[in-house]
Fold this protein.
Amino acid sequence: MLTAVPRAQPDSSEAAPLRGLYSVEAARRLAEFGPNAVVEEHVHPLTRIARHFWAPVPWMLEATIALQVAVGVAAGGDERPLWIFASGR
């Protein structure tokens, strides 16, 4: 059977309302740590797109397309590579 656990009573110092930092302490922390801000990393859109192609799976797809084109050229170039069928043309 479950029983309720009694909550600990706060000390008198913890029961006091929060008042925040003194100006001196806030200025010291600002000087030591800097402003409380998150720095955004700006990435150029072309760099973001290029990162999608920098992985093993896109490399395998690109190698497959290159091999299909090479086989099509070696076979006389009359055959359409499979990637043309996949594109719906």
